[in-house]
Amino acid sequence: MIPLKSQKDLTMLKRSGVILASVMQKLQASLRPGMTTLDIDLLSAELIRKEKALAAFKGYKGFPGSACVSVNEEIVHGVPGPRVILEGDIVSIDLGVNYEGFFSDMAVTLPVGKVETDRLKLIAVAKQSLDIGIKQAQVGNYLTDISHSIQSFVEAQGFSVVRQFVGHGIGTALHEEPEIPNFGRPGLGPLLKSGMVLAIEPMINLGSWECKIIENGWTAVTADGAPSAHFEHTVAVTNKGPVILTKV
Ligand code: MG
């Protein structure tokens, strides 16, 4: 059952999303070569605390960080630690906020200093694929219209779509129904209704789509070691079209 949100719920989810987007802006502004992924995590925790909200990932299924920080070949669920961020890296920051019981989820991939052209294109295509997916989050569309639009665009650009991780419903829990794959045939799954709130999150690889989990049990990396990019927004399906909640 996919929960439908009331107008009051959507107002609270928007507050949560605005907090998250403003924290993300500050993290983006402070990203520098020489920082560790733990530095980003600690800063995110402090910024979320200042907004009187909670870091939704902290302790989720035992996750040790407030943020997932995934560098280059790391796709998602990068565990914050001593890894030093270098000029030329691309860094994915995935962050969730719990504001008075209302959850929002967002990810961006950022270039650090001067970055190779193919990595910049990967980031641009990943970002654009999210925009394309969001446009399909319309009342009366099927869920996998989102999935199909993302995969078609990404593969036409010569990149691949991660299969093992998918987007999800969100609201009064971090993960709700439905699962939202970033690949597959259109016209399947539930019809989208006003009041659904979806965390749409394409993960795009420069090489092949296969991935593996490293020894820490969390971090997913590309099987071929090529870079990966990840963008995510929390989006409300409304009668006036999709509304991005994770926006300042
Ligand atoms: Mg998510």
Topology:
Layout: H1 7-30, H2 37-50, E1 54-55, E2 67-71, E3 74-76, E4 90-99, E5 102-111, H3 117-135, H4 143-156, E6 160-161, E7 167-169, E8 176-180, E9 197-200, E10 203-205, E11 211-213, E12 220-222, E13 228-230, E14 233-238, E15 241-244
Antiparallel strand pairs: 1-4, 2-4, 3-12, 4-5, 6-10, 7-8, 7-9, 9-14, 10-13, 11-12, 14-15
Helix pairs in contact: 1-2, 3-4
This protein binds magnesium ion (MG).
Magnesium ion binds next to loops.
What are the defining features of this structure?
single chain; 248 residues; alpha+beta; five-stranded antiparallel β-sheet; four-stranded antiparallel β-sheet; globular; binds magnesium ion
Mean pLDDT: 98
3D shape = globular
Task: Name the helix and strand elements from N-terminus to C-terminus, one letter apiece.
Answer: HHEEEEEHHEEEEEEEEEE
How many angstroms separate the termini? 30 Å
Please tell me the total number of domains: 1
User: Uncertain regions: pLDDT < 50 for 5+ in a row?
Assistant: none
Instruction: Provide the helix percentage.
Output: 25-40%
Query: What is the count of β-strands?
Result: 15
The strands making up the biggest β-sheet line up spatially as 8-7-9-14-15
Alpha plus pi helix count: 4
CATH architecture: Alpha-Beta Complex
Strand content: 25-35%
The top-level CATH class is Alpha Beta
Helix/strand class: alpha+beta
Ligands present: magnesium ion
Major beta-sheet overview: 5 strands, antiparallel
What is the name of the CATH superfamily? Creatinase/methionine aminopeptidase superfamily
Radius of gyration: 17 Å
